[in-house]
Amino acid sequence: MADAKTQGKPPLIPVVRNIVEVALIVAWWLILLQLIAIGRLSEGYMSLIIVVGCLVKTAFFGTENVQQLQYAAKQNVSHHHFLVWMAINMGQMVMSFAFDFYCLHRLNPNSFAGMSRELDPNEALFDCFYLSTLNFSFFGYSDIMPQTIAARFVNLTEIVIAFVTVIFLLSDFMSLRDSLASKDTARTR
């Protein structure tokens, strides 16, 4: 049984796990950029690879968010610890989608209206983070608009995972935690 000092505190494992997750996101991004630079695959195949990677990451993030919610409910993790976990996950998601947008822009500079073909790579990467952050925050306006099917699909996917994360997990954490805790109590009876 945990004492009052350790109850509800997150274990060290999520810190290591998040470092590994960020490293994997960056590694995937670098692999995609290398594939784009080599140019052996057509734009259609590269777009498909980016979209499939986006879907895999989205499923992973969605699953991880639900797992963290369940862990937080079972371990009675404090609300602010849970919010820190979710903020880290949301940062990873924003970064991941920004990298997807950047790869799509590198693959086809016409993927996004509002992003110049002549942008310095650092400026283009900033614009991709800008778009991703606006999508995730539901700001609702951007001067950068997806133009290709792949760009629209990735954009839509980010909006959906942001909606699920923010609306269902963050905004209703307390009632979800109480609901999961009561289900666990009912099962143990």
Note the topology:
Elements: H1 13-38, H2 43-75, H3 79-107, E1 112-113, H4 121-137, E2 145-146, H5 149-170, H6 173-188
Antiparallel strand pairs: 1-2
What report would you give on this structure?
It is a single chain. The chain is mostly helical. It has one domain (15-180): Helix Hairpins (Orthogonal Bundle), CATH 1.10.287.70. The chain has 6 helices and 2 strands. A two-stranded antiparallel ribbon has the order 1-2. The protein is elongated and about 60 Å long. Mean pLDDT is 84; it is low at 1-9.
SS-based structural class?
Answer: mainly alpha
Alpha carbon gyration radius: 19 Å
| Largest sheet: spatial strand order | 1-2
Helix share bin: over 70%
Q: In the residues, how many domains can be counted?
A: 1
Oligomerization: single chain
Report how far apart the termini are: 19 Å
Question: Summarize this, please?
Answer:
76% of the residues lie in helices and 2% in strands. By secondary structure, the protein is mainly α.
Summary tags:
single chain, 189 residues, mainly alpha, Helix Hairpins, two-stranded antiparallel ribbon, 2 strands, elongated
